[in-house]
Amino acid sequence: MDDKEYQLKTLDQVFMSGAYPIVFKNNPKYDLGGNTPYIALSDVIDLNYIIRASKSYDDKSDQNKIIVKCSSLKEIVEDGWRLD
Q: Mind listing the pLDDT tens digit for each residue in 27-82?
């Protein structure tokens, strides 16, 4: 299993559990200014593939700045995002 397959399988499992926000490693395609990229728990529950950025590792609300909206988990992985 290559990295993208592993990332997609793991991301799918985490996303479908709907238990907590999903945190990513920084993606070099985006300038996050040291902020933490994540998908808010409310977005996970609503099946929205929206990656946001937070200045605080503890603040994972759905009110923070949107970095990118994707149409699927596969698009998230293909865009270069990796689970932290």
A: 999 999 889 999 999 999 999 999 999 987 666 777 788 999 999 999 999 999 99
Helix (H) or strand (E) holding 30: none
Rounded to a whole number of angstroms, the distance between the first and last alpha carbons of the chain is 19
Give the sheet arrangement for strand 66-70, strand by strand: 22-23, 36-39, 49-54, 66-70
Distance CA 40, CA 63 (A): 9
Whether the pTM exceeds 0.85: the reply is: yes
Segment holding 55, helix H or strand E = none
